[in-house]
Design a protein that fits this description.
Blueprint lengths: L2 H4 L4 E10 L2 E2 L1 H10 L5 E2 L10 E2 L7 H5 L1 H4 L4 H17 L11 E6 L5 H14 L8 H5 L3 H10 L5 E2 L7 H14 L5 E8 L4 H10 L28 E8 L1 H6 L6 E10 L12 H14 L8 E3 L6 H15 L4 E3 L2 H4 L6 H15 L1 E2 L15 E2 L5 E2 L4 E8 L3 E9 L1
Parallel strand pairs: 5-6, 5-7, 10-11, 10-15, 11-13
Antiparallel strand pairs: 1-2, 1-8, 1-9, 3-4, 7-8, 9-16, 12-14, 15-16
Helix pairs in contact: 5-8, 9-15, 12-13
């Protein structure tokens, strides 16, 4: 095998877009991440639920962004993904009217699909009978349809599918997108995730499991990754999309990458349905696999964008894995203190934040850490952004079902 053949494949990240509770667009979200500004607040739609707050993208209006003629046929999750995709393509400088659509793929993740639509239409069925159910229910709410709608809007005729690995879904999507590029099946892949599941049913279900923070008297401080008093995650909504390209394709059109997606690893705990393996062996396997895929040694990693859900067991296990594999050198952050937990879109949010950290050479703080858990033996960035020279960073995602996914990025 030649040196060139053994060199790890690196997908160029040439664009990204975000819709989050912290901002409409990547720039606004990034500024609020740097400021450590929490977004959790009471949500009228959750009135009467055991937990009545969430991180809602309250300023996102699908009608205003996409136009009423388009938006009314789309679930809110798809509306947000469409907006994030447009931002990502604009930043990448790609014009869908000019590309070879057969070489453009779309891989967009979701954990729960179009829950806003499912819940609304089920209410109509119960109240008014089957004649009241919209004929658009399935094309609006099916898990694969966000990828389908994005492809149709931009003439992307290459491989098109959704990934669903719970809270690891959009990190899995990034790994699958990189595989498509490495196999030379695509020149460009639109990849990421979306979720719009701030609904009474979803909130009630997660609350019944005991997964959500119950800090209803102070929602803004409820999501507190790695804090000794953390008591659960905060439900969130949003979408993040990255434009990934084969490096030679990006070079040929004069695009300058923001970073490279250089490695991907995945594993299964094959254990409990919702609780992570207390030894973290599955998460560790995914992290080591991503490093090997990227050709990185543990000491090469400067920064970890952690899954950091603010649940007691997840944060403890994840910090143990980081310490065991990477030591106490990398600067660790979790953006969920600001954004909340966006389920299937969380990994894509965190991937964009990781790319921005490498691009700007700064790590945003973990919001709401008032007292670091003494069991957390890693270098958690708190209080303020930390300027840092970084060449490589990893982003973790761990989902129900014991599904683990890790991506490794290197600086451009």
């Amino acid at each position: 095998m030649t040196a060139a053949a053994s060199r790890p494949f690196r997908a160029a990240v040439t664009g990204f877009g975000m819709v989050t509770a912290a901002g409409l667009g990547a720039a606004e979200t990034w500024q609020n991440l740097l400021a450590g500004r929490p977004t959790a607040r009471q949500v009228p739609e959750l009135a009467g639920m055991p937990v009545d707050f969430a991180c809602q993208a309250q300023h996102f209006d699908g009608d205003a962004v996409l136009g009423r003629r388009v938006a009314w046929r789309l679930d809110r999750s798809t509306q947000m993904a469409m907006a994030a995709t447009t931002e990502a393509l604009n930043l990448a400088g790609l014009d869908p009217d000019q590309w070879d659509g057969a070489r453009v793929g779309v891989v967009l993740a979701t954990a729960l699909g179009g829950m806003t639509t499912w819940e609304r239409e089920y209410g109509r069925l119960r109240e008014h009978g089957p004649g009241a159910v919209s004929p658009l229910l399935i094309p609006m709410a099916a898990v694969n349809m966000t990828a389908g709608h994005v492809a149709a809007a931009h003439g992307a005729k290459g491989p098109n599918f959704a990934t669903a690995t719970a809270c690891a879904s959009s990190t899995t999507a990034l790994g699958a997108a990189r595989d498509l590029l490495q196999a030379d099946l695509c020149d460009v892949v639109i990849a990421g995730g979306t979720e719009a599941s701030i609904t009474p049913l979803v909130a009630a279900a997660f609350a019944k499991m005991g997964a959500l923070s119950t800090r209803t008297d102070d929602p803004a401080t409820a999501s507190r990754p790695f804090d000794v008093a953390r008591d659960g995650f905060v439900l969130a909504e949003g979408a993040s999309v990255l434009v990934l390209e084969r490096p030679e394709h990006a070079r040929a059109r004069g695009a300058r990458p923001y970073a490279f997606l250089s490695g991907y690893g995945a594993s299964a705990d094959a254990g409990h349905a919702t609780r992570p393996d207390p030894d973290g062996t599955g998460a560790e396997a995914a992290l080591r696999s991503a490093l090997a895929d990227a050709g990185l040694a543990p000491e090469d990693v400067d920064h970890v964008n952690a899954h950091g859900t603010s649940t007691p067991l997840n944060d403890a296990v994840e910090s143990q894995v980081i310490h065991r594999v990477l030591g106490d050198r990398p600067a660790v952050t979790s953006i969920k203190g600001v954004t909340g937990h966006c389920l299937g879109a969380a990994g894509a949010h965190e991937a964009v934040a990781t790319v921005l950290s490498l691009h700007h050479q700064v790590v945003p703080p973990t919001a709401n850490v008032q007292e670091l858990d003494p069991q957390v033996q890693v270098d958690v960035v708190t209080d303020k952004p930390r300027p840092l020279l970084m060449a490589a960073a990893v982003s973790h995602s761990f989902g129900f079902g014991g599904q683990n996914a890790v991506v490794a990025f290197t600086s451009a």
